[in-house]
Amino acid sequence: MIKKTITYVDYDGNERTEDCYFNFSKAELVEMNLSTEGGLEAKLRKIIEEKDTPKIVELWKKILLDAYGIKSEDGRRFIKSEEISKEFSQTEAYSNLFMELSFDEEKAIEFVNGVIPKNLEK
C-alpha cells in the first residue's frame, strides 16, 4: 500500500491537502494477470515497445483508479468500488497525481512498486 499526500486547489478555489491510498491485493494482481491474454507483464511490454501512447495513457489511468481506495477505520479492509474510483477521478487530486506520475518516471516506478504487495514486488 502506498499513501500519497496530495495538495491541490478544489473547484471552489480552496487549497486542500489529502492523504490518498492505493493498493492491489495479491488476489487482484493474480486476477489481472490471468484475465490478460499472455499475462499482464507481456501486455505492458508490448504496449511500451510499440510506443502506443493512447494505450499507455489508458492503462496508466486504469492502474491509478483500480488501485485507489479508502482504508476502513479499523484497518481490516481497503474499500474499493467503481463509485469511489469515479469520485476520485473527478478531483484535482487525481489530476495532479496523474500528471506527476505521467511525467516523472522515477515517481511512476515508485508508485507501482508501492501498490504491489511486498512479497510480490520482485
Account of the 3D structure:
By secondary structure, this protein is an alpha+beta fold. The protein has one domain (2-120). It has six helices and four strands, in the order ββαααββααα. It has a four-stranded antiparallel beta sheet with strand order 1-2-3-4. Helix 5 (92-103) packs across helix 6 (105-115). The chain starts with a strand and ends in a 7-residue tail after the last helix.
In brief, what are we looking at here?
By secondary structure, this protein is an alpha+beta fold. It is built from six helices and four strands; from the N terminus they run E-E-H-H-H-E-E-H-H-H. A four-stranded antiparallel beta sheet has the order 1-2-3-4.
Q: Span from first to last CA?
A: 15 Å
Quaternary organisation of the protein chains:
single chain
- Low-confidence regions: none
SSE pattern: EEHHHEEHHH
Rg of Cα set: 15 Å
Largest sheet: 4 strands, antiparallel
**Strand composition percent:** 15-25%
Mean pLDDT: 90
General shape = globular
Count up the domains: 1
Compute the number of helices. Answer: 6
**What strand order characterises the main sheet?**
1-2-3-4
Residues in helices, as a percent range: 40-55%
> Structural class of the secondary elements?
alpha+beta
Number of strands: 4
